[in-house]
């Protein structure tokens, strides 16, 4: 689903990503951790085609984003749902209208759009608040609306940047349980976070982990054994390459 190879990205000559590589197979769930400023958001923006790498390759769902024409970006984004920390709901509109925004660019009837938007809110446990004004919802509820908005287009991949950023620990825990359920229903998920509470949450063993520090991928865990998937989209994307000696040395450095 995702393959990043030797990616470099600098801002005003200062590297934010230094030769980062990562592979995420279809059906994977990956927790990308690292301190603030490590380059997590920069990496997610590359995956969403919001920016280009200076060097290296980024593939999402079998397409190279490096060679993507601007006109193709919307087609790539149809496969990707995003939840950013600053999730920007339309406060004066209802929850369901906020979710419907995602589908309005598609050529669907109003009835279908509303039915699917209601279903997405049900899926995040907000069925009863569908008609509430977004601005009147709590922070945790608003974040769930943002997740429903990201999911309503049934993306193959969900990217979440600091999804628990504005939530207290209990709400953060509930949100992670929800994201884990979404993963179990078949969506490939990547969560980026600097929040130690999330890291220690004890997310199910199905979640893979990767750690980015100062623009370098220090630690990518071994993929969990899973049946080979041969669907076209994931061909050649069978998880991470075999660990080599360098990885093991890096891993030891992290553990110490
Ligand atoms: N648009 C930008 N302009 C200048 N510097 C940026 C920009 N985006 C990110 N950076 C810098 O790149 C580094 C990595 O940032 P970021 O990817 O946001 O890290 P993280 O999400 O892990 O906190 C930081 O030093 C940040 O200041
Ligand atoms: Mg960030």
What's the layout of helices and strands?
Layout (H helix, E strand, L loop, with lengths): L1 E10 L2 E11 L4 E5 L6 H8 L7 E6 L2 E2 L8 H5 L2 E4 L11 H6 L9 H14 L15 H13 L5 E5 L7 H16 L3 E6 L2 H4 L7 E7 L2 E5 L24 H11 L1
Parallel strand pairs: 3-8, 3-9, 6-7, 7-8
Antiparallel strand pairs: 1-2, 1-4, 4-5, 9-10
Helix pairs in contact: 4-5
Rounded to the nearest angstrom, the radius of gyration is 18 Å
Please tally the helical runs, counting DSSP H or I stretches of 4 or more residues: 8
Structural class: alpha/beta
Read across the widest sheet, the strand sequence of neighbours is: 6-7-8-3-9-10
Strand content: 15-25%
Portion of residues within helices: 25-40%
Q: Which sheet architecture does the biggest sheet show?
A: 6 strands, mixed
Q: What bound compounds does this protein have? A: adenosine-5'-diphosphate, magnesium ion
Q: Count every beta strand, where a strand is a DSSP E run of 2 or more residues.
A: 10
Taken in chain order, the helices and strands follow as EEEHEEHEHHHEHEHEEH
Shape: globular
Instruction: Determine the mean pLDDT.
Output: 83
Low confidence ranges: 224-256
Taking the alpha carbons of the first and last residues, their distance comes to 32 Å
